[in-house]
Amino acid sequence: MNPLLDFSGLPRFDSVEPDHVAPAIRQLLDENRALLARLELPGTPATWDDFVVPLTDAGERLGHAWGIVGHLHAVNDVPPWREAYNAMLPEVSRFYAELGQNLALFEKFKTLRQSPEFATLSPTRQRIVDNEVRDFRLAGAELRPDLKPRFQAIQEEQSALAAKFSENILDATNAHAEWVSEASGVAGLPADVRAAARAAAESEGKPGWKFTLHAPSYLPVMQYADDRELRARMYRAYATRASEFGNPEWNNGPLIDRILALCAEEAAMLGFATYAEVSLTPKMAESPAQVIAFLRDMAAKARPFAERDMAELQEFARDRLGFGTLESWDLAWVAEKLKQERYAFSDDEVKQYFPEPQVLAGLFRVIETLFGLKLEADSAPVWHPDVRFFRILRDGKLIGQFYLDLYARPTKRGGAWMDEAVARRRVQTGTQTPVAYLNCNFPAPVGGKPATFSHNDVNTLFHETGHGLHHLLTEVDELAVSGIHGVEWDAVELPSQFMENFCWEWDVLSGMTAHAETGAPLPRELFDKMIAAKNFQSGVQTLRQIEFGLFDLLVHSEFKPSSDQSFMDVLAEVRREVAVIVPPEWQRFPHSFSHIFGGGYAAGYYSYKWAEVLSADAYAAFEEAASSAGTVLDAATGKRFWQEILSVGGSRPALESFLAFRGRTPNPDALLRHNGMIATA
Length: 681
Known about the structure:
alpha+beta; Neurolysin, domain 3; two-stranded antiparallel sheet; five-stranded mixed beta sheet; 56% helix; single chain; globular
C-alpha cells in the first residue's frame, strides 16, 4: 500500500518516499471529485448525515495525506521532496479553489441552514454550518461563472508563490557562510557557539570556524562577537537575503509585488475594497481601521519607553565603548554589553543552566501540574533521527501524542511552528487521538553533551507547546472546530503566548535548571537579575512588532501595487511613524517576512499583539490565584483554562471563551504591566 494512503494510524515516515506523492494525492483528488459529484446531485439531501459527514470524511483523508507531504517539505527540504511537493501543489490548490467556488455545495449549506434540521443541531454544528457559508462566500462561490476560472487561477498562483517565497529564503540562507581563521575573530563568542562553528568547519574538512545565517549561528554572532566587521558582514548577508542583492533566482521582491497584486485582485472580485477586509472577515477584529487604531495606540504607549531604551544604548555606546555611530549590526552587541554592566549577568551565563533534559522535564511538569496529565516518551516512525515522540495521558487514558523536532538543520525551514498530524474527531470506531508536530530551530548538541538553550529558546518552546496544547487538549469531536480549527486567527496565539509567562516564574524555573558543567540549579540571585532585566529594551521590542504589524496591514490595505509607490516605500513610511531604530536603506526585511508572504498571516500579523492582550489578561488569573495558592501552577485555575479556552477549540467565538474564563472583556493593563509600561498596583 502507498503509505500516504494508509489512514490506520500514525504517518509512516519510515516508508513514505517522494515517489509516493503524485499517485496518492491524485487518487485522493479523484475520490474527492467523484464524491463531490454525488453530493451536488439534487437527490442528495442537504442534511448533516447525508451531506456534511461524507464531505468531511473525504476532506480529512486528502488533508491528512497532503499534510504529511507539506510537513516533509518544511522539515526535509531536499530536492526530491521539494520537487514532489511543488509538482502536486498546483493540482491541490486548483482542487481547493474549485471546492470553495462550488455553488451547488454552497447552496446545500444554505439550504441546511434554512431547514428545520438546523434548529435541532448542536450549537457546535450550527457554528460549523455558519462558518461554511461564510467561507464559501470568501472563496468566490457567488462569483459569476465567467469570473470563477480567473479566481481559481489566483488561488493556484498564490499557493505557488508562497511556496517559492519560503524556498528562496531557505536557499539564500544556506548559500552564505562566514569563515574565520584566526582565534581573534571569534573573541567574545560563547564556548558552545565556537564549538559548533568549529565542528561545522571540520565537517567540511576545513580549518577555523564556519558561521551561517541559521539562527543558532547568526544570533550569537550578532549578540556576542567582538569582531565588528564580522557582525557587519553577517548582518548585511542576513538583512539582504532573497533580495536583488543576491542570486536573482532567489529574489523575493518580484514575488512580493505579484502576491500583493493578486491579493488586491482577489479582494476586488469578492467586492471588498482591500485584501485586509477579506482577511479580517473571519477574525475577531472588526475592520482594518480598528486594527490600525489598536496598533497606533499601542505604539503611542510604547514610544516613550522605546525612546528611552534607544537613548540609553546610544549613550552607553558613546561613553563606554567609544562608538561614534551606532550601526544596526552593533545594536544587539551593545545591548548585551549594557545589560551585563547594568544587571551583572549575560544571556550566555543563563543559557548554561538550561540543558535540554532539564528544560523538557520542567515543561512537562508545568503541563502535568496545571492540567492533571502525564507525559511519557512514546515511539513512532520519524523523519529524522533527532525527532522524538511523546504521549499524553489523562487518568491513564491516551488523549494526545506529539512529535518534537528541536534542532536547526540546513534542510529545515527557519523559525518555530506547531502543525497538526491528526485532529480529534468522532468516527465510527471511536474518537481519533490528536497528534501534533512541534518544530523549533535550536542549537543541536555538540561534543556529546546535551544541547543548552537560551532563555529565549525556552520561551519559544513553551510558546509552540501552547499551540500544541490547544490542538491536543480539545474536547470537541467535530473536525471543523476541533482544536485550533475554526478559532479566529487573531485569537490563535492566546494559548501560545499564555504559556510563555511561566518561563518567568521562580517556582517553574527553579525546578527545570541544572548547570551544564556543575549540575547546580539556577541561583535565586541570577533569577532575580533576569527579572530585573526582563523588560530591558522592551519598548524597542514592542515598537518593532508594531512596525511589522502596521506594515502588514497597510501594505494589504492602503498600498496600491500598480502605483509608483513600492512596498519598501510603505515600510519606510511606517518606520518614520513608529520606529526609533531605522536600519540601512539596503535592508530588505520584507523579502524574508515569511509570515505574511509565505505563511498565512497576510493582513494578520497584528494577531500577535492582539492575542498578547488576551494572553496576558488570561495569565493574570493565575497570578491572582497565586496569592492564595502560593504558586501560579494552580490546578484549579488550570482546569478552568482547559475547560473554557483549550477544550472548546473553535466551537464558539473566542471572545465568548475569554469571557467564560475571565468573567469580563479583555483589559490591556496586564500586558502593559508585564512589559514594564504601567505601574504595578
